[in-house]
Design brief:
The protein has 184 residues and is mainly α. 68% of the residues lie in helices and 0% in strands.
Length: 184
């Protein structure tokens, strides 16, 4: 799939296009943030937020710009916002009307990663899940073992639903890599 086609399909809410864009640009955004934050966890969190925000606002992307540059700009802005938030001496939680938004969840038919995960026996699967970072273990556990919806996971983790979707997508990809290359 080419980038322009993937962006067009993503604007039509095509999940395969979102996955393609995530896979294509994850390392670029993560590497950019790793250089800025010098912390793997912070870089990963900001990268997840970047894709969450980008996918949420994909309809605003203008094709005359470079998609990677757009993602890096979003990522940079999220990092700057986090720095400002941490430097702020007054902290308050503002509840917005967006808290009550109802999300339309797209097709949840099994992806290749889902099929690989289900084919493994439970003991081996649990052992491999333990190789993931704790926040990925948690989202896999909530989704597949506790069978929670995206909305419920979002409420449980106190994170936006798009962050949960991106985390789960990333966790499934990493787990699929572990399962297909157990010695890697």
């Amino acid at each position: 799939m080419e980038i322009k086609k993937a962006i067009k399909l993503a604007k039509d809410n095509n999940q395969a296009a979102f996955k393609f864009l995530l896979d294509t640009y994850w390392n670029d955004v993560y590497g950019f943030q790793l250089k800025r934050t010098e912390n793997e966890n912070d870089a990963e969190d900001i990268t997840i937020q970047t894709f969450s925000r980008a996918f949420d606002k994909i309809h605003t992307f203008d094709d005359k710009y470079v998609f990677k540059t757009w993602l890096i700009t979003i990522s940079k802005n999220i990092h700057v916002d986090l720095i400002r938030k941490h430097k702020s001496s007054i902290r308050s939680k503002i509840q917005t009307k967006d808290d009550d938004i109802v999300y339309d969840i797209p097709d949840e038919s099994p992806t290749p990663e889902d099929k690989i995960i289900r084919e493994q026996n439970l003991a081996k699967l649990l052992k491999n899940i333990k190789k993931l970072k704790p926040h990925y273990q948690e989202v896999i556990n909530l989704r597949y073992f506790q069978e929670m919806s995206y909305k419920d996971i979002s409420e449980e983790l106190k994170e936006p639903m798009n962050n949960v979707k991106v985390k789960l997508l990333r966790a499934k990809k990493l787990l699929a890599q572990i399962l297909t290359n157990p010695n890697a």
